[in-house]
Amino acid sequence: MDVQRLELLRELAERGSVTAVARATHRTPSAVSQQLKVLEREAGLPLTERSGRGLVLTDAGRALAASATDIAVALERATAVWDTFRNRATGDVSLVTFPTAGQMLLPGALQDLADHDGLAVHCTDMDPELSDFPALTSEYDIVLAHSMRGQHTWGGRGLTSVPLMTEPLDVGLPTGHRLAGRVSLGASDVVGETWIGVPLGYPFGRILHDIELQTGSRALVTQRFADMRLIESFIMAGLGIALVPRYTSSGDQPGRMVLKPLRGLDAERQIVALMRPDRAERLAVRTVVEALRARAAQVQAEHAAAAG
Amino acid sequence: MDVQRLELLRELAERGSVTAVARATHRTPSAVSQQLKVLEREAGLPLTERSGRGLVLTDAGRALAASATDIAVALERATAVWDTFRNRATGDVSLVTFPTAGQMLLPGALQDLADHDGLAVHCTDMDPELSDFPALTSEYDIVLAHSMRGQHTWGGRGLTSVPLMTEPLDVGLPTGHRLAGRVSLGASDVVGETWIGVPLGYPFGRILHDIELQTGSRALVTQRFADMRLIESFIMAGLGIALVPRYTSSGDQPGRMVLKPLRGLDAERQIVALMRPDRAERLAVRTVVEALRARAAQVQAEHAAAAG
DNA sequence: ACATCCATGAAGCCAGACTACATAGTCCTT
DNA sequence: AAGGACTATGTAGTCTGGCTTCATGGATGT
User: Fold this and answer.
1) How confident is the model at residue A239 (pLDDT cuts 50, 70, 90)?
2) Could you tell me the domains of chain B?
3) Which end of chain B is more exposed for a tag (fewer CB within 10 A), N or C?
4) What's a GO cellular component annotated to this UniProt protein (chains A, B) (predicted)?
């Protein structure tokens, strides 16, 4: 019973093809195939089945792959133990973020981590509409993802998710707008407005949908953009109003744009760090996540202070 | 980070010397030493220290050995998963018991397990006074041990213990005894009697001590024997009375001996299966333990039926 | 001081995991 | 229908890495 082989099976369960596993583990497909064959012989029962060109796991294979995860977690926990003894989080950590969260959290977090010698954080950004967050955990140690409250699309998949912050979604208005003097807005206040929306399928979409449900009328969406800067420019030009994340937007722009909180709606998004459970155990990874969390708390505190 | 090496470290933590680890793992001391050296180099900090002729673990070494246990547990759980898929508990299971428990549980349990092809149970007995139960878990998969209630001497050592049964301790009297007609006995009834005791340090000893504490007088112990048959023969000869375990003694012997329950005292012993946590995960081991537990329940039920 | 226990070094052996290459099956395209 | 592109997987050979054997040095106790 070899751990390396089980690890291969787990990779196969995640990636779905021998070739992909080989690429990911810097081996030839032949080597992977041979090891899986050995594993199967040891197990005494088929772990994979051919399906078209590729392979799929049998029930037994999936079960075994699942326990391979437990082993990987225990293993990483062990290396974390000794990393702790050296008081050293070292190694490479790869991270992928969507742009707004990265802009808000990464510069500060990386500054805070600068004194950790030997800890190298490699960051990338990826458009949230194009990214299947859970799938990215195969390639990156940490995936910054956002989800609307109540949506736990990845809890079930056996991934570890650490909440970093909850960010309220406000309504952005041009300064001259008839609602610009209000303290907060309700669904009925805004449903009749001209909206700048996000592309269909984006998470914020649900909020506007909730507004429609609550009021019984349809909202008029004239434009749909993914880039928040673009949306803001439309708001400031007086071409409509939009939902903007409170912290990652430009915020109140004196003389040009104001943000007003929504009441009576579940208008906030969770920003979470998403990880494969074994990787989440690595001390280096935990250190980075902790830095992100601290930074997020600081951002929230600064905004709270500014508001209060 | 290699599992085999960590396993070696764990063995070292348990057995205390490279030579012992080598013997236990069928290797030469040199091989063990080399692997530990590699582990230490990987860890980047000393895991062992010389102490006289032998080695002792450093704090870091102990911590690492502890997480090695977690890995071993996960590993055995994985093999259990696939054993389950084959519906087959196979392999060798070694067991050591103290005589009375073995006589009561083993014949029946082994009969129940006879239909499991490929499951071989190797049993040994060992005198409870000579045996350090926790230490035996290094050599045997299952250690049948007894403890008085409230004594959890091995819970803390990171061992898995599965309770099999609680056996009441009765007072054995010769049939002609003045108390032989009673339904049950209290401490004050028996403290003045002539006692046949167990050797000093035996677990039952505490009961007699409790009797002395409760009554404030000392009990007269004329003989001390380890073997229950011997004790019973003294009882039947009218040479004294003694504490006897209800199920593993010969029980009521019409015309010769009667058993009377004690009230007002914590007069029972726990019989438990004691295992190293990784071994406890093996399907074969779990199967045997389950058979023992079932057998124990049956013994208790039979006695309850006979009494009622 | 010697015998005996311990851990550990050096040299060589051998299993087992890898690469490179070749083969066979499946899917899609033309 | 046939080729090309993709899968997985066999075969042969290489080489890493853990093992054994033998030898050394320190610690203990008689």
Assistant:
1) confident
2) 3-83 (1.10.10.10), 88-163+270-307 (3.40.190.10), 167-268 (3.40.190.10)
3) C
4) protein-DNA complex
